[in-house]
Amino acid sequence: MEINQTTSAATGTQSSARGTTDGGTDGGTDVTGAIGGDFQTFLTLLTTQMRNQDPLKPMDSTEFVAQLASFSAVEQQVRTNDRLQSILDVLSVGSPAGLAEWIGREVQVAAAADYAGTPLEVAVEPADGAERGVLVVTNDFGNEVARLPVAADARDVVWDGKDAMGTSAPHGSYTFTLESYAGDNLLGTTAGKIFRRVDEVRLVDGAPRLVVAGGTQIPLDEVGAVR
Q1: What are the beta bridge partners of residue 211?
Q2: pLDDT tens, 159-170?
Q3: What are the tens digits of pLDDT across the range 60-100?
Q4: Which H or E run includes 219?
Q5: Cβ contact 180:187 at 8 Å
Q6: Nearest to 219 by CA among 186, 227, 207
Q7: What mean pLDDT do residues 192-217 have?
Q8: Spatial separation of the C-alpha atoms in residues 211 and 202, rounded to whole Å
Q9: Rg of the chain over all Cα atoms, to the nearest angstrom
Q10: How does pLDDT run across 12-49, given as a tens digit for each residue?
Q11: Hey, which bits of 86-215 come out as E strands?
């Protein structure tokens, strides 16, 4: 009778954990709650099994070690999820501390680059099916300065600061556009991305925008990389 009662308690705990996994009344799933429920269920079942084992036929040591390993794995998963949630909270767009973390960093965005004699690295993304690409360099007045050939599988292109005539372009602000081609057919154009420093973070209509050097405002989902 004692074994049945204990087993029922463990089953009840398992049902409770399953309810946590299924989510609340809103139909959502609480992942941390689900793993935590599984953790408690595992612990209850293991201790119940040990308490009610036959003293003359105890649990095989190999099986016991395997169950302890599983127990440790579940515990580690819970701790990992807690740490990840802490990191997410810090970098959350709704957290002032998270927004402040962007200031002073360099982000890869589609914005004008300041050329001061040093070659500029431009991130590109050719269109699907492209056989080749052309990087178009435009100055601050909207005039085309240079056109550079780009391989279909390229992800970065370096502009050495030379114009179409092979002479050094004047210092100033330049933008980059990638044209993707299949044969002579233009498949589309995409903006080249460069690294710019974040000077400010603003809330525009409730959504955060990064203000990079030069005053360009960039939504967070348009950031290609951070350094």
Answers
A1: 200, 217
A2: 999 999 999 999
A3: 666 666 666 666 666 676 776 666 565 455 445 455 556 77
A4: strand 217-219
A5: yes
A6: 207
A7: 85
A8: 7
A9: 29
A10: 444 443 444 344 444 444 545 555 556 677 777 777 87
A11: 106-109, 113-115, 120-123, 132-139, 144-151, 156-159, 172-182, 185-191, 194-204, 207-212
pLDDT digits (tens, 9 = 90+) for 178-190: 999 999 999 999 9
**Residue 15, amino acid:** S
- 79, 73 in Cβ contact below 8 A? no
**pLDDT value of position 148:** 94
Separation CA 200–CA 220 (nearest Å): 13
Q: Where are the alpha helices (DSSP H) in the chain?
A: 2-22, 31-51, 61-91, 96-100
Asked whether the predicted pLDDT for residue 139 surpasses 90, the reply is: yes
Q: Give the Cα separation of 125 and 154 in Å (integer).
A: 7
Q: Are 138 and 175 in contact (CB under 8 A)?
A: yes
CB 51 within 8 A of CB 31: no
The amino acid present at 148, given as its one-letter code, is L
Burial of 122 (0-12, 13-18, 19+ CB in 10 A): buried
Q: How many C-beta neighbours within 10 Å does residue 55 have?
A: 5
> Residues 8, 13, 16, 18: is their CA dihedral positive or negative?
negative
Spell out the residues 6+ positions from residue 31 whose beta carbon is closer than 8 angstroms to its own.
81
What the block records as the tokens of 193 is 């991305």
Residue 41 confidence (pLDDT): 74
- Least Cα distance to 10 among 18, 78, 56 occurs for 18
Alpha-carbon distance 108 to 122, whole Å?
A: 9
Pick from 208, 214, 216, 118: which is nearest to 173 by CA? Answer: 214
